[in-house]
Amino acid sequence: MRRLRRWVTLSISLAVLAVVVPDSGRQQFRASLVAVEGASGLDTGDGVVWILALGSDARPGEPVLRSRADAIQLVGVNARTSDSTVIGIPRDSYVDIPGHGRDKINASLVYGGPELAARAVAGLVGIEPDYVFTTSFAGFQRMVFVLGGVNVYSPDSYVEPLASIRRGFNDLNGVESLVFVRERYALPDGDFDRSRNQGRFLTDGLRALRQRADEPGALERLVYSFTQHTDIDVGPVELYRLARAVLAVDPRRTSRCVLDGSIGMAGSESVIFPDRQQARSLGRRAGRDAKLEGGCG
Amino acid sequence: MLAVAGLLAVPLLGGCTGDAQQEAEQEKERTSARTPVPTSGSGAPRLVVGEAPVRARVVRVAGDLTAAERTQVKDNIGRVVGDWFDAAYLGGELRDGADLAAAFEVFTPAAAQQAARQADVTTGRVLAAELDQVVPTTQRVEAAVFASGRGPAGATAKVTLVLVGARNQGEQVEQVVRGELFLTVTTDGWRVFGFDLSRSVGEVGSFARAEKRAEGGS
Fold first, then answer.
1. What is the interface pTM, i.e. ipTM, of the complex?
2. Fewer Cβ neighbours under 10 Å: the N or C end of chain A?
3. Is the CB of B116 inside 8 Å of chain A's CB atoms?
4. Half-sphere exposure of A12 (CA within 13 A, CB side)
């Protein structure tokens, strides 16, 4: 993970009220009910944290941070409201890559690593990521293993040598999860559906993370494991606070969109010409609070 | 003036060291011995009840910590949480509408602001105006720590504070604050950057009975 700009202040505030009936017994206090009030807060900055999640398709021996990005998902986290937005960008989107002219957006990682990938995404969507998280195939599988697997919803059924995915919810291990986020040929809308599945996986992965984190010490173990299997140049304190911010997100309050576009040719290459107006609209509407009012249009 | 618990309290336990089993046994002994008794006589009834010290434990470590570092983390987190307990629930200053900031000196500034906005839970101010005296009968801190190669970095502290208070008329009340504090290491030492807490008020002994039930059911 690479930090692009300094951590900013963000907060969460939530209160709940519940009433339960205590045991009968010696009555020293007038109240026959026990009122339980709640309070919560989180100091993670004063705005939304944007994380660019990249899945590098580096093969063994290839540099993870200088290979093409198979998965490109821009994730906004608003720990104050528990909202989040996931914007999927098809990897073949033909965009301006600063200093390199026009090319597929997945080439930005090859040309300039995570920083350039972040600039290319910022040029398209209008949101500059605060962090870029890059993982390899092996790192991805390891994280799924640490989570104990992920229960993922798939709108499609298909069978691959390493995984059989059925329509509905699937309990996936690391290998099967990798198949799920990489498969596109079996999907009716190809690269767009693959990007949708990647967004689904992020949301369902967050749900798994929150379930695991309920166990005492689980978050600490997960963060530690993360440091062992991820390219990271964020300090441990900052990472720990970021993890708490991510955990504050309610998966039910997540908006997901995949950037639309039209398929065409650029020279001899098949590319996607992204809908730039939609990209800017998504960035404008979600940029401030990670809440996408009005859907993906 | 709200009587500070220590004036009448009988300290039952001293330090914060010892292995987990010993601590658990001591905790049980203290729980069974802490039923408060109002004294009679002239003036307002007074509580006679054992005051429990802050008991901190590191229950889990993710990463590498030496035994000395682990002890240091336990002591430091215990001290930070204990300072908050003191300032927010035990000091009595909040009754007169004192500045809430004093209750959250061990919080980061943004977390302190949020905690101040929810002071009915994060401090004892709701009951402070009604109670003549409060005694902490449980002050428990159980920390799960994340450590990097550079030492401890973050922790989740499961906290439990049980207070017994007495009103002018002699009526007793038990206030329980439970939940989690999220801490990181800063240049000023450990600081609370997040919290998820609940506060309940009920009859004296409710907490001990609930714990007993939970132990029986586990």
1. 0.77
2. C
3. no
4. 29
